[in-house]
Amino acid sequence: MNIQKSLKDAVDIALLKEPVMNKIALDKGALIPALMIVGAAGLICALGAYVFPTHVGFITYRPSMAFVLEQAVITFALGVAFLYLTGYLAERFFGSKVNMQAFVAVMGHANIVSVIGFISSLSAISGIWGLVILWNFLTKVAKMEPKNVIILMVIDVVIVIFGASAYAGSMMMGI
After folding, report:
1. Burial class of residue 30 in the structure, from the number of CB atoms within 10 Å of its CB (0-12 exposed, 13-18 middle, 19+ buried)
2. For residue 60, what are the β-bridge partners?
3. Model pTM greater than 0.85?
4. Does the pLDDT of residue 17 top 90, yes or no?
5. Which residue(s) pair with 54 in the sheet?
6. Rounded to an integer, what distance in angstroms lies between the CA atom of residue 102 and that of residue 138?
7. Neighbours of 8 (CB within 10 A)
8. pLDDT range class, residue 173, cuts 50, 70, 90
9. Is the pLDDT of residue 118 over 70?
10. Contact 110, 130 (CB under 8 A)
11. Quick check: 138 and 90 in contact, CB under 8 A?
């Protein structure tokens, strides 16, 4: 496993290079580096909340390092679960020509874009670009019909909104 090569592939996927997406989709060894990228990106984003604390009026909130690590672990677990769920849905119900593992490998590499969430005000940009990457991957590499991609993306957005709301609610309740 060559980390430097995997990071270059991740950046190329983020730049929408279809040949690299195809290469990663066919590479059985690409899954572990993809999961490592998901984990590292989650840790980097969580550290961003520590490095750039939130300011509300005269109050500054800087999370503890334990909270940062907790957020990194939760982000990794939910991110991986979400990738597998989306890959499963794409393969089983929406006609994807790539299997679930190939989906996770490619979109896990694509998760490199989320590192710009290190500065929380830029997180939305990474989310929007992630949808652009997903669209390109599913229409060009996975050969899915555009209407099926749209339906899958709507399902993904609903899952993210519902999941974020449930998570925020559990945090407020101290669960």
Report:
1. buried
2. 55
3. yes
4. yes
5. 61
6. 11
7. 12
8. low
9. yes
10. yes
11. yes
Q: Locate tokens 């990794």: which residue?
A: 76
Q: CA–CA separation, 112 vs 10, rounded Å?
A: 6
Query: Among all chains, which residue has been given the structure tokens 């290190």?
Result: 118
Residue 43 is predicted with a pLDDT of 94
Neighbours of 34 (CB within 10 A): 28
Encoded tokens for 171? 């945090």
Q: Are 1 and 120 in contact (CB under 8 A)?
A: no
Structure tokens at 169: 């609610």
State which amino acid sits at residue 93: F
Alpha-carbon distance of 117 to 80, in angstroms, equals 17
And the tokens for 168?
């925020």
Which of 18 and 160 is assigned the larger pLDDT?
A: 18
pLDDT at 35: 97
